[in-house]
Specification:
By secondary structure, this protein is of the alpha/beta class. The chain folds into three domains: 353 residues, TIM Barrel (Alpha-Beta Barrel), CATH 3.20.20.80; 54 residues, Oligo-1,6-glucosidase, domain 2, CATH 3.90.400.10; 64 residues, Golgi alpha-mannosidase II (Immunoglobulin-like), CATH 2.60.40. The chain is built from 14 helices and 18 strands. Helix 4 links the parallel strand 2 and strand 3. The relative contact order is 0.10.
Length: 501
């Protein structure tokens, strides 16, 4: 097993993590100053969302330079210091890399649109209108159901963008594009980065005919429909770049296909992605049967290709799990147990350890074109306003930021923060939870149960998804952790989870 099989990743959305210079936007130095907190919490690796220079049409996912740091976040020297100090604490660091598209302000696209004969023209995907004057195809954006094509008046053709018009898609069929993008990986690998989260990596391969999507699926947009065999060739090329470097550099891909069987194919024959996100866990309702079915499909899909799954309950694009669970304290704690005891690599999102809820954003403070501001509200560090920030941050804080602040919760042994830290510590102390097999999954009376097994040790997990208390048979074993609401030792309260060995 590699280090990422046993690690717990902590996603940092830099703009909202911690502001060290007082401009209202979180930065690299802010991350560095909180490394001791992250070490105390007990995570193993940091995933940092994009910090590259960008016009910020999509807040960093529109990259204008892959080999530098945007001044709003700091400098390359700041990043090098962060990386060095993280490594000194035993923390791995991966960067969010955006391979499918650049910013329209990237020098490549500026040149590409200057002329149909320009050097970088075929670095992007250009098409004429169809013979009837309509768009090149019917692809729509998953964000707003707007067409994925914009006409460039200057050069007289449409260009493809599966997201905003400010994010033109690269043409990965062009080997020069692939070579240039591989060199951007080497730039960061040479600085010592431990790996990359690869944004919508399944999208880089396109069918050269750009066929229409089925009419009955247009409502979902093109992104979750793009599953093209040539992408696997490109992933094998990227894997070889990572293998040029020592110390097990890794990749985790955003494969937004919403099908565990399809997602698992992006591991290849252990020669493509090291890990791939399975996003159905963000969409699965809090019901025992639904989670049993998701876990079963995920386990089967990954075992069939000898791959290691991932689990995630919150991120920068989706409603926070605490809000999806209605703010119920017992369920929120139970979700932490579930996330950190399933077989696979867990990815947690900043503030998840605080039980942080989505923020309600006033209309005059909305900034994100994808309506994701609510899950990106700033981390509250201190109890007093502005919660450890120097002044008014770029987004308002979520409600009750006093109670959800790190300072308030670190002084309360019964807080979400201490509970999450306890689950992380339990996972670290139990080889069965980090690397063990997955056995005996079943549901009875709305209670989900499974075992994790390693070297003769068996750790059992029960999660009560129902509204009634339920008895469990611990067979004389001891409780290692429970999420609260206990009635007696062998009875699970509604919403409660328990770990037994």
């Amino acid at each position: 097993m590699k280090w990422w099989h046993e690690a717990v990743f902590y996603q940092i959305y830099p703009r909202s993590f911690f502001d060290a210079n007082g401009d209202g936007v979180g930065d690299i130095e802010g991350i560095r100053t909180q490394l001791d907190y992250l070490t105390w919490l007990g995570v193993d690796a940091l995933w940092i969302s994009p910090i590259f220079p960008s016009p910020m049409a999509d807040f960093g996912y529109d990259v204008s330079d892959y080999c530098n740091v945007d001044p709003v976040f700091g400098t390359l020297e700041d990043f090098d210091r962060l990386l060095s100090e993280a490594h000194d604490r035993g923390l791995r660091v991966i960067l969010d890399w955006v391979p499918n598209h650049t910013s329209q302000e990237h020098p490549w696209f500026r040149d590409a649109r200057s002329s149909q004969d320009s050097e970088h023209r075929d670095w992007y995907i250009w098409r004429d209108a169809r013979s009837d004057g309509s768009l090149p195809n019917n692809w729509l954006s998953s964000w707003n159901n707007e067409p994925d094509w914009t006409f460039d008046e200057g050069s007289g053709q449409y260009y493809l963008h599966c997201f905003l018009p400010e994010q033109p898609d690269l043409n990965w069929a062009n080997v020069r594009v692939r070579e240039a993008m591989a060199d951007t990986l080497r730039f960061w690998l040479d600085r010592g980065i431990d790996g990359f989260r690869m944004d919508v990596i399944h999208l880089v391969g396109k069918d050269p005919d750009l066929p229409n999507d089925p009419d009955d699926l247009l409502f979902v947009g093109h992104v979750p429909l793009n599953d093209v065999p040539v992408t696997h060739d490109y992933l094998r090329e990227l894997r070889r770049v990572l293998e040029e470097y020592p110390d097990d550099r890794m990749s985790v891909g955003e494969v937004y296909l919403l099908d565990p069987e399809a997602v698992a194919t992006y591991y290849g024959d252990q020669d493509e992605l090291d890990l791939s996100f399975n996003f159905l866990s963000l969409l699965t309702p809090w019901r025992a049967e639904a989670w049993r079915d998701l876990i079963t499909r995920t386990e089967n899909a990954h075992l069939n290709v000898d791959a290691w799954p991932t689990w995630v309950l919150s991120n920068h694009d989706n409603q926070r799990v605490a809000s999806r669970l209605g703010g119920d304290p017992v369920k929120i704690r139970s979700s932490a147990i579930l996330l950190l005891t399933l077989r696979g690599t867990p990815f947690m999102y900043q503030g998840e350890e605080l039980g942080l809820l989505n923020g309600e954003i006033p209309e005059d403070r909305v900034v994100d074109p994808g309506s994701r501001d609510g899950c990106r509200t700033p981390m509250p560090w201190t109890s007093d306003y502005p919660h450890g920030w120097w002044g008014e941050p770029w987004l308002p804080f979520a409600a009750d930021s006093v109670g959800y602040s790190v300072e308030t919760q670190i002084d309360d042994d019964e807080s979400y923060l201490h509970f999450f830290r306890s689950v992380l510590a339990l996972r670290r102390s139990q080889p069965a939870l980090r690397r063990g097999t997955f056995e005996n999954l079943n549901v009875e009376s709305h209670v989900l149960r499974f075992d994790r097994c390693a070297g003769g040790d068996v750790v059992s997990v029960w999660v009560n998804f129902g509204r009634e208390a339920c008895a469990i048979d611990m067979q004389g074993r001891s409780i290692l952790l429970r999420s609260g609401g206990a009635i007696d030792e062998a009875l699970l309260a509604p919403g409660e989870a328990v770990v037994v060995a």
